[in-house]
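Quick start: read one record
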Amino acid sequence: MSGMAVEDLLELWSAELRGTKDRLRSLFTHPSVAASAAAFLDTLLGPERRKTGWMRAEAGGDRGPWRQQAVLGRSHWEADTLRDVVRDYALETLTEADAVLVFDETGFLKQGKASCGVGRQYTGSAGKITNCQIGVFAAYVSGKGHAFIDRQLYLPKDWTSNPARLAAAHVPETIQFATKPRLAVAMIERAIQAGVPFAWVAADTVYGGDEVQTAARRAGKGYVLGIPSSQLFWVGSPEGPVSNTAQQLAEALPASQYVRLSAGDGAKGPRLYEWAYLELAEVAADVTDTPASATVWTAGLLVRRRLGNGELAYFLTRCPQGTPLAELVAVEGRR
């Protein structure tokens, strides 16, 4: 935006915001509800540091929070339809064939027990086990930018096993318990059904198990997924296949195999680490759910070593044979 006059930039933002509100009107059955939704969006984007109902109402010129609360609690509109509107809007600008679908979760700290899905559980938002809700999110990340395109609230078993509690929170009867990786799989399937173009799936160790791996393979996608140091791999030896942990394989790598590369720019410049890659096997040779194609897929172990303290992190990869190390690093960096 360099070289653009401030008034031109403001008009550009204003026009884009008006266009966004126009997209939302089709979600609502009455113009007054659409107007309340537009006011709700305005106050979310406003300068108020706390977005309580009363503060949003004051910022929007209302006498009380009831008009905006009606949009969230009493009006009839489809949240999943809004999700699809947001996804399509983001893809108009960000689409690239080699984009990455990134999965992660965040916690929403709560005080009470009535909020849907709330409970004592770990959240990185607080860095500890605390009373919170957990949301699993899918972000579309390309060289043009990034945006959230899907989401799902995680419901712990003490919610899904309690019909009265579910009913009190207006949870649909069709909802059953699903692990966080299972929620991510559903989002991969929705992205495929919607024709979202992406080449990779990336996530941390919560999502590094078989479910997400299988979903990505079935979709013909590569992945860079975090795994624990104790993850076992079968590797060849003169005596036959033997099992080694990710940590053992990393410790056996010679120092010359590590390469210093940036995982992308951060707030303080390039995020430099040392990286090593160990090819493990052809995935297509022993995984029946890989679609038939001319691409030879390989599995590998990507190791990231932090400069200074030498702390290691491990990632299971699936990529076309011959994929440069720098590309795998770039995928992990987008996570």
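The chain has a mean pLDDT of 90.
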